[in-house]
Write a structure and sequence with these properties.
The chain is mostly helical. It has five helices and no strands. Helix 1 packs parallel to helix 5 and helix 2 runs antiparallel to helix 5.
């Protein structure tokens, strides 16, 4: 005897599938960054490795900003679960502003590194700064995907597509931003302690 799925069961199964796909994508990103940081550790034994290199101050500020992104996205998720549309929109817009500020601070940090006399490419570059540049740019590329998805989520929110029973887009966005946040904090701490 065939059983039919209710619309609610179908939605629940579909939501789980999207979350699982995102989880697999995040695991593959973790593996990529594990490879990059492993190469970083191995390269530390090189004679041309910079032992006295300091992270730029902008990276400290950007770390605080990306943690703020996670907080505002979490608050947006809580607000939509209570059908508070106005607060949801405000927190999503705050997340976008903080995300853009994070990107700006990363480029300010690159500028500070160059001002200190270190370069990322060319004859005056070092393996240390080249690795730093690669790791942060790859993270920025993943963040660009996060910003694009956030813009889509904000658009859908403005079109009133989310409510307490339809939160999947915001949940997936929050999952990804929390992941980006943890990933940057890991990279920052790694670069800080393993220079």
């Amino acid at each position: 005897m065939a059983t039919t799925m209710t619309a609610e069961e179908h939605k629940s199964r579909s939501d789980r599938s999207y979350k699982l796909l995102l989880l697999f994508a995040m695991i593959s990103m973790i593996m990529m960054f594990a490879g990059l940081t492993s190469a970083f550790v191995v390269s530390k034994s090189r004679v041309d490795w910079l032992k006295d290199f300091q992270l730029p101050s902008a990276f400290y500020f950007s770390t605080a900003v990306i943690i703020g992104c996670s907080v505002t996205f979490h608050l947006a998720k809580k607000a939509i679960q209570k059908d508070n549309q106005k607060a949801t929109t405000a927190f999503l817009l705050a997340t976008l502003a903080l995300g853009i500020l994070f990107v700006v601070l990363q480029f300010v940090g690159f500028g500070q590194i160059v001002e200190s006399g270190y370069y990322f490419t060319g004859s005056e570059s070092s393996i240390t700064t080249t690795f730093l540049y690669i790791v942060t740019v790859v993270h920025l590329l993943h963040l660009a995907g996060g910003l694009i998805s956030l813009l889509i989520i904000i658009y859908n929110q403005l079109k009133q597509k989310y409510n307490s029973t339809q939160t999947l887009g915001i949940e997936l966005g929050a999952m990804y931003w929390h992941f980006l946040d943890l990933l940057w904090v890991y990279l920052f701490l790694f670069l800080f302690f393993f220079k």
